[in-house]
Amino acid sequence: METVAIAILNFNGKNHLAQFLPSVVKNSNPAKIYVIDNASSDDSVSFIETNYPNIEIITNEINFGFAGGYNQGMASITEDLVVLLNSDVEVTENWLDPLIIAMKNNMIAGCQPKIKSYQNPSVFEHAGACGGFLDIDYFPFCRGRIFNKVEVDSGQYESEMNVFWISGAAFMIRNTVFKEMNGFDADFFAHMEEIDLCWRIQRSGLQFKVIPQSTVYHLGGGTMDYESPTKLYLNFRNNLFMLIKNHPGFLLPKLFRRMALDGIAALKFLVEGKWKFFWVVFLAHVAIYANFSKMYQKRRALKKYKKKPQGIYLGSILWVNFIQRVNVFSALNQQKWN
Description:
single chain, 338 residues, alpha/beta, Spore Coat Polysaccharide Biosynthesis Protein SpsA, Chain A, 2 domains, three-stranded mixed beta sheet, 14 strands, globular
């Protein structure tokens, strides 16, 4: 029987730990629980030591961000299956069982539960919803969420299915696969590192699933508000990092198209008076020029992985959403999937 661990990354998150750890401890047998502390300056660590002595604490010397923090912590975790769980997630009774069952298929590298909003439990949560996909320009969206439009969960997405990416909010993965693929790309720091990892793993021939029979509730924006300029910067930059590393065809035409679309988004921010958002898109593109050589070297190292990923929508989600006004996953043209 495969062993299971839950790894929670923490940075100055005592309040989240106090609020959400009780559900994890209560509902996660037989998993071993780890908290990976990213050099917190609050009393998170002493809070866990006092109140949860059975939780193992892994201490990082500095704040390595989401990607690097998990990489550091995972080096000390030996269980077969590991759920990387955000500190602001409430889990439900028996939530682990359907995920563990799904992982009995050796072709599945990882899976996620249905992720719903903690603040509004009737709707899907932005970060992962019911499984993630990419469109032809590599914009991410979810079953249950297209851009900022989240759907009410009325039972419309109860079937398991293969997805392109699974959410870092509740990310079950085989420990051996995580380590064989060198974990998250620490250069991402935070945001989209899980999509990049899923892309790389799919290129190696393995798959990802969403398992809606398991449900968790995610507060969302717990470590960085959804309207944060820093978050926007990381999303724009890291999406392009991911494209440079993984796009299977001629790189420059696709990269130029994506950067042009980003430019349109920046102009929209400017017209709306969102000066900071306009500026961070510009800074994200500056970072692409500064880091292109490094990302291109990573691209070359990944050329040995040639399998075609599942879960790419062969259309523009921008066009579908903003021009055709489609904002429900089930309304997408089902003929346009790879």
